Task: structure prediction
Amino acid sequence: MFWAYLLRRLGVFFLTIWLAATINFFIPRLSGQNPIEQRLMQRAVSGGSVQTGMEEMIKEYNRKFGLDKPLWQQYVTYLGDVSQFNFNYSIGDYPRTVTQVMGDAIPWTIGLLGTATLMMFGLGSLLGAFLAWPRSPRFLQFLVSPFVALSAVPYYLLGLILVYFFAFRNQWLPLFGGYSPTAVPQWSWPFMFDLVKHAVLPAASIILAGLGGWALSMRGMMKTVQGEDYMLLAEAKGLKQRTLFFRYGMRNAILPQITALILSLGYILSGSVLVEVIFGYPGVGSVLYHAIREFDYFLIQGVVFTVVVAIALGALILDLVLPLLDPRISYGRA
Amino acid sequence: MSNTELSAGQPPEAPEAPTGAMRSQGEPVTGRNIAPQILSALRHNTALSLGVILLVGLLLFSVVGAMVYDVGKAAPLSALPGRPPGGDYPLGTDQQGRDMLAAMIAGTPLTLRIGLIAGVLGTAIGALLAFVAGYYRGFADTVIRTAVDVGLTVPGLLILIIIAITLKGNITVDQVALVVASTAWLWPARTMRSQVLTMRERIYVQMAQLSGMSGPEIIFREMMPNLIPFIAASLINSIVQAVLASIGLEALGLGALDTPTLGMTIYWAIYNSALLHGAWWVWAPPIIAILVLFVGLFLLSIGLESVTNPRLRRAA
Result:
């Protein structure tokens, strides 16, 4: 049973990745234009300093892509390259490779969005659990409607509003960037403080926009758990409220939240695009934005493919790990 | 629900909203006219009437606006650049000389159009696939289910980016809608398939089968009418997601560059660093329009839920 499930799950995983690679390969070719040539021509026309690298680049592309070879052969070569995370050179940032450009950006994104997602998960779950708890303070009930209203705003638009009020009107926090232009990246307290200061607004816009959703789903689960017999028994035994709340209530209600958390961790790499653009944060999202603006095709393909792999991997790990967290789930289901 | 990572903040697999689908658990709907019900519901149902008021208001704004205001000024260089609101320009102008009020009047219906085209297409294709997969099962089901599983794993925005970038430069508003629709069918297909699966085991469907009705006949005459509340909820949700996705694409500059849709307005605001110039009048109006649209659709779906699902009515 387990092996059949594992096999099917792995099948979907590889199918997803293959599909992403194939879309990446064929859609640009279906359009009938050659984005690489276009881009290089554009560069050549604007001329100047890049001119020296041009010849070399064109040679490299021709060799690399075997543009004279039949399509299927190009496709096979492409799949081989991609499976080793080899996406060629960045056109806009030549002679750096796509992998190098992304390597610089990924830690920023994971740092910002990982922290924000975890905080949102923790705060949202706690808030939701309190909402469903009959003996929680009244003011919490009033707290939730603004958050639910906020979750109707796309978080990148919320970001715009936050920047305006907290960075432009009142210069409490920096307007944009991952760290001050004058700062030198290093492991020191002042720099860390600078780093955190720059992360506050983007993180806040993600958290504020998402908190309502997390709280509502947790509230629903907590309500269900409260109806269970074991809650009644636990209360009859005279257990402390705190124990009831955390060990009996939240422990049993939090599983679907964890599922959602692991899935949303997979979405981190792509979810950041617009927030990073608005805040000029040097992560994967900004890389993608500039790649689109400069028509850096390889970089776009690299980012898209990497993100898809990250998400597919997240979903795969989740499906394999979940039965460990909740013994009631068996592998056979699916 | 949130099949695009645009809603990264929220749990991607947020539990499905309790929609009118519950209704379909009961007896089949006969051809009963629900129009009078809706009218009376409008009077008693605050959510529904508020939602309708917001949406109608948004429509009126652009329809009446287009009649009394010169929409031509939405084009660049048609007004003095960088003017704050007031005087000749009630909502000010941006750095490239667009009149913001004209841009809002001309752009709002365009964004609505994208949402409608992509939402309707997505829901229709999704429903069709759901019925084929859920009713006929077998090989078709395996293919469709796997396609949906795989498609939902890949973040929609990224597929859209790859498609949109190959069309870049000469894309029209309708093409943006079609690009968005290309992933909009996934979520409706998944949710409706599970509805169809339970529905095909109902007695009345089995009766229809026994009485010799053909597959398509059963789907359209027996099952479809019972799924209408669910399809309506799915449609509203698809429209919201489509508008979100289109704004996401456009904010990255992958829309119709020469049109003033809400997303493109935001793109130009970011492009011209309106934020650093303190030109709040450039980015605030599109955000407000988007908010009105989303809150209106949200209230509409809540309101419709209690019309189609009487069990919710007392609680609301």
User: Anything to note?
Assistant: Chain A is about 75% helix and 0% strand.
